[in-house]
Each structure stands twice: as C-alpha cells, then as structure tokens.
Write a structure and sequence with these properties.
354 residues, 43% strand, single chain, 3 helices, mainly beta, Beta-galactosidase, Chain A, domain 5, nine-stranded antiparallel β-sheet
Length: 354
C-alpha cells in the first residue's frame, strides 16, 4: 500500500501506528445542523488522497468527495437534505430538485427518468390500478439498514475499507424491492467500487429501472475541463443543445441562465464489455473516470448543468433509454423482475492524476 509517500505492508503499518485510523479508515457520524440534521453518514479516508462520505440515510449514496484537497463531488445549494423532509408527490414530480446534491444520486428502483403514470394491475388491488412515479423514482430518499462497515485484510496484503447496507422500497399491494449495496475502497487507493444487487422480494412481477446520477462539480469541473467520451454516436439530444450551442466536450465557465443540456450517447465498450468516460482538468492535473459494465447499463446519458450557482456535469449509466418508462413498456424493453429474481451492478469511480 502506498501511504504517506511510502510503500507499507500490514506489519510495517502496524509498527508505526497503534490504530489504522492514523493512515485512513471509516468514521460513523451523524450530521447535526440545518436540513441535513439527523442523517447518518460514513466518512471514508483511504490515506491515498481520496475522501468521501456515504449517506446511510439517503440510500447509501455518495455525498461529498475530494482528492488531495480538491473537491469533485457536486455540492448544490440544497445540501444533503434529510429524507424526512422529502415529499415525493410535491411540485408535479420534481421534488428531487429540493435535495439534489452529491457525487452519486441513485434513481430507481422501479422507475427512472421523467414522471409517468403506468399500469399496476399486476399487484391485483382494485383501488390502485395505476401507479404514478415522480422524477427518478423513490429510492434516493429511503434510509438504509446498515449491515456493517470496517476494514478487511485480503490474502494478497491489501486493506479494504468497506460498508454494506440494505434499502427496502416496499408498500402493501405494490412493489417489494430490496437494494443491497456494498461500497469498497482500498487503503492507499483512489477508487470507489460499488456493487449493487436489486432483488424482487415480493410475489408479483415488478418493474425495475435503474440509473446512477453521478455528479461532478467545481473545482474539478471548471472552465477548460474536457470530456473523453468513447462515443460511437449520439442517439438523442435535448432541444437546448441546438438553442444554446454550448460544446459538450470542452466546458465553459458558469453561464447565466443556462438551460440543462442532455445527451444519450452510445459508448464503445472495451474487450471486457466496460466503458470508461472521464472528465479531465489539465490545470489541476486530475481526472475523474466512471468505469461501468455496458451489459448491466446499456444506456448512457451526459448531463450538462452549467448555470451560475448550480454548476455541475453528470455521467448517467442507465438500464433504459431516455424516452423513459412509458416508451419502454410500449416497445417491450421494460424490465420486470420475477419473484425472487435479482440484478447485479458492478461500477467503479476512479480519481487520479494525469
């Protein structure tokens, strides 16, 4: 392990420190002020320059993130709002915008993308023939049941920092989906590994849609930052692209009144079926890279929100295309999990020096 400029094995580390926290580790805290008050969080420090927070009470999503003193996880004006303040049906389904912040906001488990009212007859409850879904679904505002966290030494001498928990999205006469999320980072390392398992724990076929909203903010995002996208072609773009004409490859400084620009790209996978889009800041000498399996997430969206005061870009691997749930049901591409069926997702967030 490379820590504090030296290569150390377990024995060498233990000779120098009576507690692993001298090098890195995980600390459990509770946020205690403002709209964030009461949220359980796990503070990861790898000792390799990477530090990030896991928001246990917000689906174990990733909040703040920095590398060697430079932030890269987006911080919006909403802060990390407590899920108890969230009203799912508020503002015509756009209530997510009142708590939209952090490196990772998970969308799902049964719905992603724009609002939709869809058939729910599979649940056989006459008073709920349809179900209405807000933007990006419910899961991001659901607290997890924490299974545990800590350090694990591997046979090859690595120390792995880990946390695991379960998020239940369930209702009577409706879906019963469970997300088991495991987060790992190596001591001395600079990547976050995410392993998610979504299982239909109910007894009815249940819709499943899944999307990661991975948000990078200032200072990694800045004027002159550039994208490296292994794109074969662009399948869709929002109307704002033609109206504004702002490049999706080289980023400007924050713009007044900017309207979000969204693209769906078809990315070219490597030989292992994975794609690695990245954002590069040459002034800082840093990059942020997403590494995901295109068979697990066959769609990918690029989100540009370059407005003053809310300056962010997003990488969004998705199980479904940009037209959303109604279109997926109409063309037969909608995913339904049978009772007991599960899907797994293996994703890496990587930060490093050029």
């Amino acid at each position: 392990m490379r820590i504090a400029g030296r290569d150390l094995d377990r024995a060498a580390l233990e000779r120098r420190a009576g507690d692993l926290s001298a090098a890195g580790g995980i600390r459990a805290v509770v946020l205690d002020d403002g709209a964030e008050r009461g949220i359980r969080a796990l503070e990861f420090r790898t000792g390799g320059g990477l530090a990030f927070d896991v928001l246990v009470d917000r689906a174990m999503d990733l909040g703040t993130a920095e590398y060697r003193g430079h932030g890269f996880g987006w911080r919006s004006a909403t802060g990390f709002r407590h899920p108890g303040l969230h009203e799912y049906g508020d503002e015509n389904g756009l209530s997510l915008m009142r708590s939209f912040s952090g490196l990772l906001v998970t969308a799902g488990l049964d719905h992603t993308l724009f609002t939709a009212e869809v058939d729910a007859s599979q649940y056989r409850y006459p008073h709920r023939a349809t179900v209405w879904n807000g933007l990006h679904g419910r899961v991001a505002h659901t607290p997890a049941r924490l299974h545990g966290y800590g350090e694990r030494w591997t046979d090859d001498g690595r120390c792995v920092l880990w946390a695991e928990g379960e998020v239940r999205q369930a209702a009577v006469f409706a879906e019963h989906l469970r997300l088991t999320r495991r987060i790992e980072a190596d001591l001395g390392g600079s990547e976050i590994r995410l392993t998610d398992t979504v299982r239909n724990a109910g007894f009815d076929p249940t819709p499943h849609m899944y999307l990661y909203h991975i948000n990078v903010g200032w200072p990694l995002l800045d004027e002159g930052a550039r994208w490296e996208l292994p794109a074969a072609r662009t399948l869709w773009r929002s109307d704002s692209v033609a109206e504004q004409g702002v490049s999706h490859l080289v980023m400007p400084a924050p713009l007044p009144g900017f309207v979000e620009q969204v693209y769906e790209h078809e990315l070219v996978p490597d030989g292992a079926g994975r794609a690695q889009p990245r954002l590069v800041n040459e002034r800082l000498g840093l990059f942020f890279e997403l590494d995901y399996d295109t068979r697990e997430f066959p769609a990918f969206f690029q989100w540009l929100h370059l407005r003053e005061g809310a300056y962010a870009v997003g990488m969004e691997p998705s199980t479904h295309h940009v037209a959303g749930e109604e279109a997926a049901r109409a063309d037969g591409s909608m995913t339904f999990l049978a009772p007991g069926e599960e899907r797994r997702y293996h994703t890496v967030f990587r930060i490093g020096e050029l």
